[in-house]
Specification:
Length: 194
């Protein structure tokens, strides 16, 4: 993992702010991603939203399942509703919907992140133009980030969602840079912070 200065390491607090929508438990949340296309003649820039779901019994273990543009959750509670392989420069071109009010009680933690495909040579968030991510519930923006603090990373977590003792879901901003490709990132994105 990379720290905010781009040095490889295995932890950063990523912000300790717990968020719920207007004091209510989280329900249907969207993660939205934008970036500009590659300049003419360059390989397309392809970013993906990824979500990893963990069991309530082992919230920092292996993910039970991972959702990205080629997969969805078994019960349909986490889905990609928009996907782009190039970025369009027209706002948020990729969207993932997470329905926490429908997620089964066996799941206790979900980590959402963004990974850059590495076709055509290594690329980091610092190489991306006009990239950004927001997390919203309805009309309320819960998080917004432009990846500046993880400019040297090739993947980053964005937010951690956890189920509390009452069963209500909360979100915590968790911007943590990684220097891995999308496949490895899926396996390590939910690792505990040190």
């Amino acid at each position: 993992m990379l720290d905010r200065a781009g040095t490889s390491r295995h932890g950063s607090d990523g912000g300790a702010c717990k968020v719920s929508a207007g004091g209510k438990a989280l329900g249907k949340v969207e993660v939205r991603l934008k970036w500009d296309p590659s300049p003419l003649g360059e390989t397309p820039r392809h970013l993906d939203i990824i979500a990893a779901t963990y069991s309530a019994d082992d919230p920092y273990g292996r993910p039970v399942y991972v959702v990205h543009h080629e997969s969805r959750s078994p019960d349909g509670t986490i889905t990609m509703t928009r996907h782009s392989e190039t970025g369009m420069g027209f706002g948020f071109v990729e969207v993932m919907v997470l329905e926490f009010d429908r997620l089964a009680p066996v799941y206790g933690r979900v980590v959402a992140g963004v990974a850059i495909h590495q076709e055509g040579g290594p690329r980091t968030f610092g190489d991306m133009s006009n990239a950004g991510v927001v997390v919203v519930q309805g009309y309320e923006q819960l998080l917004a980030d432009d990846f500046a603090q993880v400019a040297d990373a090739t993947a980053t977590t964005v937010a951690e969602f956890t189920r509390g003792p009452s069963g209500a879901w909360e979100m915590r901003e968790m911007i943590r840079g990684f220097d891995s490709d999308p496949v490895l990132f899926c396996a390590e994105m939910g690792s505990p912070q040190h």
